[in-house]
Design brief:
Layout: H1 25-39, E1 50-51, H2 52-69, H3 72-88, E2 97-101, E3 105-109, H4 112-129, H5 132-149, H6 182-197, H7 200-212, H8 214-219, H9 225-236, E4 239-244, H10 248-255, E5 262-267, E6 284-287, E7 290-291, H11 298-308
Parallel strand pairs: 4-5
Antiparallel strand pairs: 1-2, 2-3, 4-6, 6-7
Helix pairs in contact: 2-3, 2-4, 3-4, 4-5, 4-6, 6-7, 6-9, 7-9, 10-11
């Protein structure tokens, strides 16, 4: 038992893994015999695939959490996952693959959901690190998402790429389930990337997804929650914050409060119009092409962000 309560004000008895059992030696001996007997049985099959979509999802969440908390270990972990994906899940010709195993390497063409989450992961890694390479990767994947999966006639994105095996019906994933739908994730990630890069085409594509699921937004919004969040971003607009160079006090001011309608560009310039005529040592808060006066300190930046929100 721990010194104080460990669950909702009460003490729940537990035994740390590997700790010695305080009791008759016969009990511990029995446990060892059971373990030995189990070790001689055929082990259950283990699914050891590394999925692109799930790991991109993880990198995205870890990058956002690292920025909000300042946890350097989480930041390193997010970057490590991103680098692993780039190294092991992308084919030589640039085509992304669905899964990787240590024995066989990467296999199977990636789906729209894989691409959508890669866009989000690389975008958030750019916001976390200030490294231009991540935003460049996000743009590259977004363009490939459009080239391979976009439905030119009906809008939104098909599940499989045009280079995949032909199916009787080419599916289109629009309903959220245990994980967000491919179209919902694509809409949200493209809306954020559009604000960071100034590429209006990305916002238009996100709007296509919203239009595609609009009947569900009215009748059953929880079934398309990620598309609903994208609709909110597109309707409300995003606030862009640019901090040229390395100024932790200004960057931390942006991250200190959860602001889902804010995107952050800092560190290395990315070629986006957001970076035009920006001077190091200041933060720039912009919205719909209009910017506030350069903020020279954290206090001014905080007030501008509060007004923009």
């Amino acid at each position: 038992m721990s010194a104080g309560p460990n669950f909702e004000g009460r003490s729940i008895l537990f035994r740390p893994l590997g700790a010695a059992l305080d009791g008759p030696p016969l009990v511990e001996r029995g446990r060892q015999l059971l373990l030995d007997a189990r070790s001689r049985r055929v082990r259950p099959g283990r699914d050891d695939k590394v999925l692109t979509e799930w790991n991109a999802m993880y990198a995205s969440a870890l990058a956002e959490a690292a920025g909000a908390t300042g946890r350097a270990d989480w930041a390193r972990g997010a970057v490590a996952v991103g680098d692993f994906l780039l190294t092991h899940l992308r084919r030589g010709d640039g085509r992304w693959l669905r899964s990787w195993q240590s024995e066989t390497g990467a296999r199977h063409l990636a789906y729209a959901g894989d691409y959508a989450w890669l866009v989000d992961a690389f975008t958030r890694l750019g916001e976390l690190t200030g490294a231009a390479r991540w935003t460049a990767e996000a743009r590259r994947v977004a363009d490939e998402l459009v080239a391979l999966f976009h439905d030119e006639d009906g809008g939104g994105f098909f599940t499989t790429g045009h280079d995949a095996e032909a199916l009787l019906v080419r599916p289109k994933d629009v309903l959220d389930g245990a994980v967000p739908s491919a179209n919902g994730a694509a809409a949200l990630s493209l809306a954020r990337l559009a604000a960071l890069t100034g590429t209006s085409r990305y916002a238009e594509l996100a709007g296509e997804v919203v239009d595609l699921v609009r009947p569900l937004l009215d009748r059953q919004p929880t079934a398309v929650s990620y598309a609903a969040m994208a609709a909110d971003l597109l309707a409300s607009g995003l606030t862009e914050v640019v901090v040229p160079g390395h100024h932790p006090d200004l960057v931390d001011t942006v991250r200190r409060t959860w602001r889902p309608r804010v995107v952050l560009a800092w560190g290395e310039p990315t070629g986006s119009p957001l970076w035009d005529e920006r001077e190091a040592g200041f933060a720039y808060v912009c919205r719909e092409g209009r910017c506030e006066l350069p903020a020279p300190d954290a206090g001014t930046l905080s007030r501008q962000l509060q007004a923009a929100s």
